Amino acid sequence: QLLSQTVQTMIHNVFRLSEKVVEEEKKLSEEQLRALQHQINPHFLNNVLQLIKGMAVEGKTEEISRLSTLLGKILAYSVYQPYEDVELKEELEYVKNYMEIQNLRYGGRIFYAIDCEPGLENVRISKLLIQPLVENAIIHGIARKEEGGRIFLRIWKRKDKIVISLADTGVGMEEEALKRLMDALKGHRTARVGIGLGNIYQRIKSMYEDGDLRIYSKAGKGTVVQIILPAAREEDYQKI
């Protein structure tokens, strides 16, 4: 009975957050709305709730508690002021929580690591800039391999640029497929690349001078996606 009440309370909280989403949607432009809807993908929510349901049947109370806590954190982060700038360490904590949920969904088949160069934790970036890259790596790369794979997120400063690099050991892409993907991104043909990746590319180009998104891939080996951002002045981010 207690377990059932816990699950019902968690689901009720999800619906309350959904009401908050509606309020936030009224304040957003059409482009922002499309991106926000992607961040709180209903398929992702449904999959997580189904996972919780399965855990409830098996009586896995500790796992349910951990998963519902993670879900609450990423929903709150996604919904509240989704287009403010945040410190990089906040964005990385969100990405870590998201990857942990996905790893639970895929039975522990996703191995991941995050490495941020010391001194960059306080750099301010556009919120929700990295998670869509992780989602693409999982859905189009790792999940398509029975044995799973690895995701390595690394951030470093190179001269006057900050590089956010996401590498995966997924299925990768043929050279021609990669060329079509990049052409679609540059042509703003979102339907061919997915709302998440297309929106990230457009946001980088519109919000950051000299910003860029680069993709390297090899069939059977994996993919590397890099976000290139102009570095702030030293005094703007060295606050540690």
- Are there runs of 5+ residues with pLDDT below 50, and where? 233-240
Structural category = alpha+beta
Order of helices and strands: HHHHEHEEHEEHHHEEH
Shape: globular
If you compute it from the alpha carbons, what radius of gyration comes out, rounded to the nearest whole angstrom?
Answer: 18 Å
Number of strand elements: 7
Q: Count of helices? A: 10
Biggest sheet, strands in spatial order?
2-4-5-7-6
On the 0 to 100 scale, the average pLDDT is 81
Distance between the termini: 48 Å
Strand content: 15-25%
Largest sheet: 5 strands, mixed
**Helicity, in percent?**
40-55%
How would you sum up this structure, described in words?
- By secondary structure, the chain is of the alpha+beta class.
- The protein is 54% helix and 20% strand.
- It contains 10 helices and 7 strands.
- The strands form 2 sheets. Strands 2-4-5-7-6 form a 5-stranded mixed beta sheet.
- Helix 3 runs antiparallel to helix 4 (61-79) and helix 4 crosses helix 5.
- It is globular and about 50 Å long.
- It starts with a helix and ends with a helix.
- The relative contact order is 0.11.
- Residues 233-240 have low confidence and may be disordered.
